[in-house]
Amino acid sequence: MREVETLPIKWRTIIHLLMVAGARRAEICGLKWDAVDWENCRIYIHINLLYSPEIGVYEDTPKTEYSERYIKLPQESMELLHEYQKWYEDMKSAYGDRWHDTNFLFFQEKVGNEGKPMNPDTVTRFLDEFSEKHNLPHINPHAFRHTMASVMCYNRIDPVSISRRLGHSKVSTTTDYYSHMLKDADDISAETIADVMLRRKPPDKTG
Questions:
Q1: Residue 168 CB partners (closer than 8 Å, separation 6+)
Q2: What band does 190 get if pLDDT is binned at 50, 70 and 90?
Q3: 122 within 8 A of 10, measured Cβ to Cβ
C-alpha cells in the first residue's frame, strides 16, 4: 500500500506492526520498549491496552494465557523500529518537562498528555479517516491480522505455527476460522507434490 509510505513514522510503524505481527490492536498499543527484543528480532506481547469511558486508558492482561507470546519479526521491521526509536527519543527531548515517561512505544501528542499511552480507539479512527481520504475500502485494525493469517495459510505454514503467532488459545480456533484457506493451501500442496514426484516431464530436446 503505497499510501502508507507517505504517513508520519508513528503511523507507518503502527500499521506495519499490525500487518506483519498480526497482533491485536490492544496488543500493539500495549507495547513498551522493554518488550522489544532487539537481539532476537522479536516483540513480547504481554499487555493489552484498553479504554473504557469510566476508567479511561488502562492496562490489562492478554486475552488468554496463549496470547502472551513472542512474535518474530523480519529484519525490515526491526530497521523500522530503530528508525522509530530515534524519532521517539527526539520527541521526548523536544517535549522536555511536559513528557510523561510511560515507556509505551505509541503515545499521545495532545497538549497535557505528551507521552501518555495512546487510546486504542485512536487507531481505528485513524484507519477510518485514512481509508476515506484515499478512497480505499474500509480498513479496520483486525483486517491486518486476518491478512497475515491468510498469507501464512496460502504459503502452507502449519496451523500450529499460525495459531501461536495469532495467540489463539486452541489450534482448533485457527483451523475452524481459516478452514477454507487451509483447504485451498492443502490442495495446492497436493498438486505441488504430484508435479514433483508423480508427473513425468517431457524430455528436454534443446540439448
A1: 64, 66, 174
A2: very low
A3: no
Cell triple for residue 84? 522509530
Q: Mind listing the domains of the chain with CATH numbers?
A: 2-139 (1.10.443.10), 140-199 (no CATH)
Give the Cα separation of 36 and 13 in Å (integer): 13
Q: What is the pTM of this model?
A: 0.83
SS3 category, 114 = coil
Question: Which residues on adjacent β-strands are paired with residue 43?
Answer: 36, 71
Using alpha carbons, select from 45, 51, 49 the residue that is nearest to residue 65: 45
What does the pLDDT read at residue 157? 83
Nearest residue to 14 (alpha-carbon basis) of 88, 68, 65: 88
Cell of 48: 493489552
As a whole number of angstroms, the distance between CA 30 and CA 32 comes to 6
Q: Please tell me what DSSP assigns to residue 103.
A: -
150: number of CA atoms within 13 Å, CB side?
A: 8
Q: What's the grid cell of residue 200?
A: 513425468
Give, in order, the Cα–Cα distances in Å from 198 to each of 187, 188, 201, 202: 15, 15, 9, 13
